[in-house]
Amino acid sequence: MDRILRWLSVLTSFVVLLVVLMGALVTNTGSADGCGATWPLCYGEVIPTGAHKETMIEFSHRAVAGLAGILVVVQAVWACIKFPKRKEIKFMTISSVFFIVLQALMGAAAVIWSQSSIVLALHFGISLLSFASTLLLTILIFEELSFRKRMIPDISKGMTWNYILLSLYSYIVIYSGAFVRHTDSSLGCLDFPRCNGEWVPDLYSRAGIQYIHRTLAGLIVIWLLITIIIVLLRYKREGYVLNGTLIAFLCVVLQAISGVIVIYSRMELPFVLMHSLFVTCFFATLTFVVMIALRRKEKRY
């Protein structure tokens, strides 16, 4: 049964990640209205009979999201029964179920009622939290069933807060990126590193929205570089922290590269989806490091 739980957890994490990417597909193919203003039905039908591309994309997204919801609940209930005394697991089971439900409700609200760009951007942010919590629950399950010992690093309280603040800041930047997309500002700047030939464009414009996001994202790269240097100097023996930080940095670099390619390819869909994939992996990796770093308190007290 333990093996089944592990495989179920891996499958659940993959399906939730697929939901995030399919949500990006819906947004970037203009398929948000593919099922009209009805939810959970699609144009009043359980399975739509129309063969329009936008309808198939939106319906597929809803179907996969429904499957993800079932898997998340099953994984959460199973984990609670299997590990009733692990506080981390209890917290992640509640988080994973809460965010997958919230994500679905926000998606439904966006379909039934016209939503602002701010709310639509928040929908993507919630989907990241949903994937991160599901992935962390999966890691915790593997830690209990497969790992020989718990991952408890010996790092300072200051470094722990560094990761917490970095994750919070990164979430804000990711939200700004979703806001860029939902305000049709993705091509507000048509070149890089300058914006339409200017180093600082008019901030009260689509170019300005894109420029602000670029600036905020650039600070993440600098912040991560400084963090990596500190970890290499002081905590290079803390493998989970070091490797997690390096993976997060790799993801954010790939995210930046794909973002530049999105601009020069004029929003080619494969690069847009890659951009969403890298930002999702980056944030999930960062939350993993935060979870591990917070355990320092358990070790010292």
Automatic annotation (TrEMBL):
It is an enzyme of class 1 (oxidoreductase). It comes from the Bacteria. The chain crosses the membrane at residues 7-26, 63-81, 93-114, 120-142, 163-180, 211-233, 240-265, 271-294. Keywords: Cell membrane, Disulfide bond, Heme biosynthesis, Iron, Membrane, Metal-binding, Oxidoreductase, Transmembrane, Transmembrane helix. GO terms for biological process: heme A biosynthetic process. Its cofactor is heme b. Pathway: Porphyrin-containing compound metabolism; heme A biosynthesis; heme A from heme O: step 1/1. Catalyzes the conversion of heme O to heme A by two successive hydroxylations of the methyl group at C8. The first hydroxylation forms heme I, the second hydroxylation results in an unstable dihydroxymethyl group, which spontaneously dehydrates, resulting in the formyl group of heme A. This is Heme A synthase. It catalyses: Fe(II)-heme o + 2 A + H2O = Fe(II)-heme a + 2 AH2. Its EC number is 1.17.99.9. Belongs to the COX15/CtaA family. Type 1 subfamily. PANTHER family: HEME A SYNTHASE. GO terms for molecular function: heme A synthase activity; metal ion binding. One of its GO terms (cellular component) is plasma membrane. The gene is ctaA. The keyword Transmembrane helix applies. Heme binds at residues 213, 275. The keyword Ribonucleoprotein does not apply. Interacts with CtaB. It is a multi-pass membrane protein. It is found in: Cell membrane; Membrane.
